[in-house]
Design brief:
Elements (H helix, E strand, L loop, with lengths): L11 E4 L4 E5 L16 E4 L16 E3 L1 H6 L10 E4 L7 E3 L8 E2 L3 E6 L6 H8 L2 H9 L11 H5 L2 E4 L2 H47 L1
Parallel strand pairs: 3-7
Antiparallel strand pairs: 1-9, 2-8, 3-4, 5-6, 5-8
Length: 210
């Protein structure tokens, strides 16, 4: 390091429980009234958490407004990180403001960052980093269905750089995610066009056979 250069901001190792509130989902018995209809408040479960740290809304299940009020302590806020604790361990989503007020099921843990210490975008990226995912999976309780609990997750050490550094990391990752989304949309369009193009090519080929 040259004289006058700032030292690298590697951050310090801090237990997750000192940075966030970690809350397990309601027991299954509290969600007996889940239904597939269009009315009510959505309840997120592991299949609703997509691979790109977003929420997949195509197969949502819901509870009535009355049930949602009774379960208000399990409501989500924008900036929460929802992580699977049973089943597809480690899969997670960063909750945005559009999903505020939704609930989450018993197979998930809600991580609510204290934003004066850690940014939600940075935390979601950190927890989905492959080496960190391996640590999380290695901590899972053995059994027919491996699981995590809130106490274990609170003890997970998180590398926490300065807020400026966290913001810079989050900005770069947002740009990358935007490019990934553009490429996926292009791939989806090409995939949709493929049958039509194939049909036209077959018709053209058949015309040369006559």
């Amino acid at each position: 390091m040259r004289v006058g250069d700032a030292p690298p901001d590697h951050g310090e190792q801090i237990p997750l429980g000192s940075l966030c509130e970690v809350t397990a989902g309601p027991s299954g018995s509290l969600l007996d009234s889940l239904h597939d209809g269009p009315d009510g408040v959505p309840v997120l479960s592991p299949p609703d958490l997509a691979d790109n740290r977003t929420v997949d809304t195509r197969r949502l299940r819901r509870v009535s407004q009355n049930e949602a009020r009774r379960l208000a302590r399990f409501a989500l806020q924008g900036g929460d990180v929802l992580i699977v604790r049973q089943g597809a361990l480690g899969r997670l989503a960063l909750i945005d403001q559009a999903h505020a007020g939704w609930l989450y099921g018993s197979s998930c843990l809600r991580i609510r960052p204290w934003r004066d210490r850690i940014l939600p975008e940075y935390l979601a990226a950190y927890l989905s980093h492959p080496p960190v995912q391996r640590v999380i999976l290695n901590q899972a309780l053995p059994g027919t269905v491996p699981s995590l609990n809130s106490a274990m997750l609170r003890e997970l050490l998180i590398t926490v750089p300065s807020m400026d550094r966290q913001d810079a990391v989050a900005e770069v990752l947002r740009d990358i995610d935007a490019q990934i989304q553009i490429q996926r949309q292009m791939a989806d369009r090409l995939d949709a066009l493929r049958p039509a193009i194939f049909g036209e090519l077959i018709q053209g080929t058949r015309a040369t056979w006559r």
